[in-house]
Write a structure and sequence with these properties.
Aldehyde Dehydrogenase, Chain A, domain 1; 23 strands; seven-stranded mixed sheet; six-stranded mixed sheet; 2 domains; 491 residues; Aldehyde Dehydrogenase, Chain A, domain 2; alpha/beta
Length: 491
């Protein structure tokens, strides 16, 4: 399948792709009024969508509206909110291909992977709706102590208030669901600021919530923008919760400016694996190529560091290089493309500079290393040392480094010697090392015999150290987005 002209795709989708502001469930702005921004496809540089630009004043209005909307959402029956999420999942199911194309148009994700993201989003919403039945409290035996005799106590979970959700470009649909789904199910109101790179994907998704017969429209606002809009949302005393996925520098700014409110941060990482001498090398190489290069390495848990036992180092390096060369790179609308462009040329240039720097310092290129525009070839570097940027900092690009180690002990030491700790993994056939890794790896998630890039939306997800605070995944996000209300009854 050759390249499909994006103007044809817009005709196919049957609409002008303009993302409007949403304030308290009401859409604002049009192509005739208001300042309009444009989004270009990262691969072709064609304008594919437009959006109504927002100001700090719009953010203030959205927050004030959300504050009023919370008074309605918190009193809504839980059954309505469960039905709401299930209904949105049903609506998204009917428009799977359309939403996959929105994602590919705006961020350049290969269409096959965009479809997977839509499927995961549907699953995520249904998982979240199901967790509504488990939104329970607990009886507390206050009469267990002499001072508590003739008392009865329990606690219940109640909505926290206004939730500000700030989402990134790499999963512009499913990461919105990870925040908005639990927030609305809990009875909160939401102000969403989606990634500036994919405003229409988020807008079209939130429209599904507004179109549902179970909707609480006053609970939903959507604004677009960069630092100024984000700063207004974070600094305001109105939100009770800030849920952010993005970079460590921005996460630091949020924690410094948020004030007294709950801050949930998923800040990326520097995912690593250890390929031990007893591992299945063919499986390990196949999976490591997927983990390093899916979505052009633009995943918080993209495999960036591979520590390999010295006994199998060269054999594994050869197998991994062969796997990387099998991957088709190019047009994201080609059904056979595995890896498309990076989100912008600055990201590609930065990654290429890091590759060149590593080579100048003694690293060896096993595969890739070349750049054309926003597209960087899947790149494997061998003989990498611990002080090179490609190892000690997050690349967020299709670059993976091989580091030779003497065995498990050295691998664990080097893996944990990082300010990040999101997900790690190990490939081995030794049960003792599997068990040890679960305890030894300093990370929020551990994967056995697969890539650290593997996770499911039903799991708790989040990291330690600079990788963040709090957990996502419906059950765990619901805990983060509710408050405990204790009740004491004197008998």
């Amino acid at each position: 399948m050759g390249k499909i002209p994006l103007n044809f795709l817009k005709i196919f989708l049957g609409e002008e792709l303009l993302a409007l502001r949403i304030i308290g469930g009401k859409e604002e702005g049009s192509s005739e009024s208001g300042d309009i921004g444009e989004i270009k496809n990262p691969y072709t540089q064609e304008v594919v969508t437009k959006y109504v630009k927002c100001t700090p004043e719009d953010a203030k209005r959205a927050l004030e509206s959300a504050k009023k909307g919370f008074e309605k959402s918190r009193k809504s029956p839980l059954s309505q909110r469960i039905n709401w999420l299930n209904d949105v999942a049903d609506r998204l199911e009917k428009q799977k291909e359309q939403f996959a194309r929105y994602i590919t148009m705006e961020v350049g994700k290969p269409i096959s992977q965009s479809r997977v993201e839509v499927t995961r989003c549907i699953e995520n919403l249904r998982i979240c709706a199901g967790e509504g039945y488990n939104l329970v409290g607990e009886t507390i035996p206050t009469d267990a102590t002499p001072t508590g005799v003739k008392t009865h106590s329990f606690y219940k979970r109640v909505p926290a208030g206004v939730v500000v959700a700030i989402t990134p470009f790499n999963f512009p649909l499913n990461l919105v669901a990870h925040k908005v789904g639990p927030a609305l199910l809990a009875g909160n109101s939401v102000v969403l600021k989606p990634t500036p790179e994919a405003p229409y994907t988020a807008y079209a998704f939130m429209k599904l919530f507004l179109e549902s017969p179970y909707a609480i429209p006053e609970a939903i606002s959507v604004v677009y923008g960069d630092a100024e809009v984000g700063s207004e949302l974070v600094r305001s005393p109105i939100p009770r919760i800030i849920s952010f996925t993005g970079s460590v520098p921005v996460g630091r700014i949020i924690t410094q400016n948020a004030g007294i409110k709950r801050v949930l941060l998923e800040l990326g990482g520097n995912a690593a694996t250890f390929v031990e001498s007893t591992a299945d090398l063919d499986w390990s190489a196949q999976r490591c190529a997927i983990g390093a290069f899916a979505n052009s390495g633009q995943v918080c848990i993209s495999l960036q560091r591979i520590y390999v036992d010295e006994k199998i180092y060269e054999e594994f390096a050869q197998k991994l290089g062969e796997e990387a060369k099998k991957l088709k790179v190019g047009d994201p609308f080609d059904e056979e493309t595995f890896m498309g462009p990076l989100i912008n040329e600055d990201s590609a240039i930065r990654a290429k500079n890091w590759i060149d720097s590593a080579v100048n310092e003694g690293a060896r290129i096993i595969a890739g290393g070349n750049r054309e525009g926003n597209v960087l070839e899947p790149t494997i570097l061998a003989d990498v040392t611990d002080d090179m940027k490609v190892v000690c900092e997050e690349v967020f690009a299709p670059v993976v480094s091989l580091v030779k180690v003497s065995g498990y002990g050295e691998a664990v030491e080097k893996m944990n010697n990082s300010p990040y700790g999101l997900q790690y993994s190990i490939f081995t056939n030794r049960i003792d090392l599997m068990n040890r890794a679960i305890d030894d790896f300093e990370a929020g998630g551990v994967v056995i015999n697969d890539i650290p890039t593997r996770r499911f939306d039903i799991q708790p997800y989040g990291g330690v150290k600079l990788s963040g605070i709090g957990r996502e995944g419906a059950k765990f996000a619901l805990e983060e987005m509710t408050e405990i209300k204790a009740v004491l009854i004197i008998r």
